[in-house]
Amino acid sequence: MQTLRTPDDRFVGLPDFAYPPQYCDLDDDDGGTLRVAWVQDGPDDGDPILMLHGEPSWSFLYRKMMPILAEAGYRVICPDLVGFGRSDKPTLAEDHTYARHVEWMRALAFDVLDLRNVTLVGQDWGGLIGLRVLAENPDRFSGVVVANTGLPTGDIPMPEVWWRFREAIQTAPTINVGWFVQAGCRRPMSDAVRAGYDAPFPDDSYCVGPRTMPSLIPTTPEDPAAPANRAAWAALCSSQTPMLVAFSDGDPITGAMAPIFEREMVGAHGRAHPVIHDAGHFLQEDAGEELARHIVEFLRR
């Protein structure tokens, strides 16, 4: 597997994100290895919170939440998905598969970090990947927070706005990641923050991950990932693992999933689920502090 690695100097001076990166090498499922990065905060003996980002962002997305959760006593771990952030970036679209992304995050969480009693926080692809890891390794988790995400099986049509996003990011001559993230927010970002989202991608050759991920989402019942997602959905529906549904009020892509999670997931029953107001798809950027406080309250209860 051929990969690119973003130069370290691209990550110098990021606003409010001075966390030193940690790295490990994972099997790339192609006879080689991939370097995968993560950052963390909080006490080493704290209960772990695994926060997974989505498309086309990276762990920088969680910078507003990390100090609040760490101050509450939790060990906060934010990986960069393969193809994003400081993690290695495969250069061929066919190197990205849904199953590989699930396995890479599973291997990091359990084979490398040996996390137990984990609370998963997943947004966008962070939920699509993380919910699979949870469903397939339930003994490792004690809670889950779903935030503007889903678990598509191809049995229900994707919304038209998602198809427009997919076409835009796959056909644009070049990808301005900071612009895409800003377009998914309700509140304005500074130039420095937009540059932070652009940092992992010096030029378009580094953008195979962002361009490819939408094509990995099951959109038909025959999709290769559909059976595993159906099995995961069935397992999660009957799981007793406590679930917090914390969606924003301004996400046209995943907003319809909030009441489905609340209704279908046993772990979501019997609790109040917050709505994050004046926030778009990237609610961590728009209202990360508020989301973090809801997570602390959920975990303490």
UniProtKB/TrEMBL annotation:
Q: Which residues form the AB hydrolase-1 domain?
A: 48-159
**What InterPro entries does the annotation carry?**
AB_hydrolase_1 (IPR000073), AB_hydrolase_fold (IPR029058), Carboxylesterase_BioH (IPR050228), Epox_hydrolase-like (IPR000639)
Q: Which GO terms describe its molecular function?
A: catalytic activity
- Show the SUPFAM superfamilies listed in the entry: alpha/beta-Hydrolases
Tell me which PANTHER family the record gives. HYDROLASE ALPHA/BETA FOLD FAMILY, PEROXISOMAL MEMBRANE PROTEIN LPX1
What is the name attached to this protein's record?
Answer: Haloalkane dehalogenase
Could you tell me which species this protein originates from? Answer: Mycolicibacter nonchromogenicus
